[in-house]
């Protein structure tokens, strides 16, 4: 009851991230849109994937937050210019009591562990993410997010802004395992929407060849972040 959720944003990573087996953003966006056809609150935003190079997560968050502020300001300007006779009581109340939106990064609990991977994150970026934005972490089997937080001074300091969500009905479907099944010609029906399965078959996306894409490459953040200091100093 603390928040009113306005929307969820799915932001596919840029091709330049160089993750092994990462297929073209064009296909990932198309599949995400198909998967979200039945959702009335989650949308796919291609901005991150359309940049010339990989964009650091904190910069993606800044972009979407600024966009939400811009939309709010546009709405307020529209309401301000409306003639009093055109305003409903509900519109007037929402205009008078408008609050600044918040943006939080939704992730699986194991995501917290990546903060300790040398050179993957900049410490100032981790701090900005947990302090300014905040995290919503969904539990995953084999991950102990509370322990990850306790083991980091920085995460402990801002733990009030890290929301741990217990998934009472656990869903252990793994994107990696689904790709492996597709490579082996096995059925993934009921694991992903039929429309996505049809798209994958039509474009022959997940194959042994595609799984070898970027093989041997370093992830782009590991190339760019030269520091060798553990960002979360235990």
TrEMBL record:
Entry-linked Gene3D superfamilies: HUPs
UniProt keyword annotation of Nucleotide-binding present: yes
Biological pathway: Cofactor biosynthesis; NAD(+) biosynthesis; deamido-NAD(+) from nicotinate D-ribonucleotide: step 1/1; Cofactor biosynthesis; NAD(+) biosynthesis; NAD(+) from nicotinamide D-ribonucleotide: step 1/1
An annotated Gene Ontology molecular function: ATP binding
GO BP, sorted A to Z: NAD+ biosynthetic process
Reactions catalysed according to its record: beta-nicotinamide D-ribonucleotide + ATP + H(+) = diphosphate + NAD(+); nicotinate beta-D-ribonucleotide + ATP + H(+) = deamido-NAD(+) + diphosphate
Segments forming domain Cytidyltransferase-like: 4-179
Subcellular location per the Swiss-Prot or TrEMBL entry: Mitochondrion
Known EC number: 2.7.7.1, 2.7.7.18
Pfam families: CTP_transf_like
Record keywords: ATP-binding, Mitochondrion, NAD, Nucleotide-binding, Nucleotidyltransferase, Pyridine nucleotide biosynthesis, Transferase
Cofactor(s) needed: Mg(2+)
Principal location: mitochondrion
GO cellular component: mitochondrial matrix
Keyword Transmembrane annotated: no
Family: Belongs to the eukaryotic NMN adenylyltransferase family.
UniProt subunit comment: Homotetramer.
Protein purpose: Catalyzes the formation of NAD(+) from nicotinamide mononucleotide (NMN) and ATP. Can also use the deamidated form; nicotinic acid mononucleotide (NaMN) as substrate with the same efficiency. Can use triazofurin monophosphate (TrMP) as substrate. Can also use GTP and ITP as nucleotide donors. Also catalyzes the reverse reaction, i.e. the pyrophosphorolytic cleavage of NAD(+). For the pyrophosphorolytic activity, can use NAD(+), NADH, NaAD, nicotinic acid adenine dinucleotide phosphate (NHD), nicotinamide guanine dinucleotide (NGD) as substrates.
UniProt-recorded name of the protein: Nicotinamide-nucleotide adenylyltransferase
UniProt gene name: Nmnat3
């Amino acid at each position: 009851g603390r928040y009113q959720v306005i929307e969820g944003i799915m932001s596919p990573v840029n091709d330049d991230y160089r993750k092994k087996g990462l297929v073209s953003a064009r296909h990932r966006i198309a599949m995400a849109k198909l998967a979200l056809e039945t959702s009335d609150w989650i949308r796919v935003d291609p901005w991150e994937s359309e940049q010339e190079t990989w964009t650091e997560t904190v910069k993606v968050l800044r972009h979407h937050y600024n966009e939400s502020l811009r939309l709010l300001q546009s709405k307020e300007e529209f309401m301000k210019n409306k003639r009093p006779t055109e305003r409903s009581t509900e519109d007037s109340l929402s205009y008078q009591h408008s609050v600044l939106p918040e943006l939080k990064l939704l992730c699986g609990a194991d995501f917290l562990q990546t903060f300790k991977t040398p050179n993957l994150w900049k410490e100032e970026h981790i701090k900005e993410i947990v302090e300014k934005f905040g995290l919503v972490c969904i539990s995953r089997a084999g991950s102990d997010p509370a322990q990850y937080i306790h083991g980091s001074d920085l995460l402990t300091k801002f733990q009030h802004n890290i929301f741990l969500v217990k998934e009472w009905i656990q869903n252990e479907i793994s994107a990696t395992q689904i790709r492996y099944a597709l490579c082996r010609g096995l059925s993934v029906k009921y694991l992903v929407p039929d429309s996505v399965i049809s798209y994958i078959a039509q474009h022959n996306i997940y194959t042994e060849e595609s799984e070898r894409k970027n093989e041997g490459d370093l992830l782009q953040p590991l190339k760019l972040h030269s520091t060798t200091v553990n960002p979360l100093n235990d």
